[in-house]
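Lab notebook, bench 4. The sequencing result for the construct came back, and we need a structural model before the next group meeting so we can plan mutations. Quick request posted to the team channel:

Model the 3D structure of this chain.
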Amino acid sequence: MHDDQIAVADALAGKPGAFDALIRNHQRLCWDIVFRLVRHPEDTRDLCQETFIRVHRSLPGYRFESTLRTWIGRIAYNVAMNHLQRRRVPTISLSHENSVTLPTEDVADDIDVEAFASDRERALRLHAAIDALPPLQRTLLLLYYMDECSISDIAEIAGLPEGTVKSHLYRTRLNLRATLERSLGEIP
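Done. Here's the predicted structure in token form:
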């Protein structure tokens, strides 16, 4: 029997600690998806709890048509998107201007300050540009690059066709590139 099947069977059978183990195995993905969309820790905690309540209620209907990870990711995504819709937060927009403000920190004297500052500046600008993306683009991008989800898994999680996911990723990368090029022009 596959690991997902064992985990689901144990949880459905009420085996002590089985559902807790399922939560532990998937809570990071749930947090990542929800937080990337809503960007508020308190709401993220509540929405992750709601996600696992829905997982618990829906577990008897899980048909193993996708991995358990992808199925739980889809539930987390839907819970977060519903939250954003209730709050009327726009989730897609690639035409906005990004205003990037960068934090400043002291750098130790014993390192190559110029190289460090250059790399650090690029990283800060990239992170700021990613954070400024609309929720859907930010989430798809980070699922692909940070969580290393496949296009098909992302499509299943987001409920979008694979071509749409590819299109969003392509346009998001173009938007990031343009934002970063604009911000590099601002460096004195």
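Confidence is low (pLDDT under 50) at residues 94-117.
Will bring this to the meeting.
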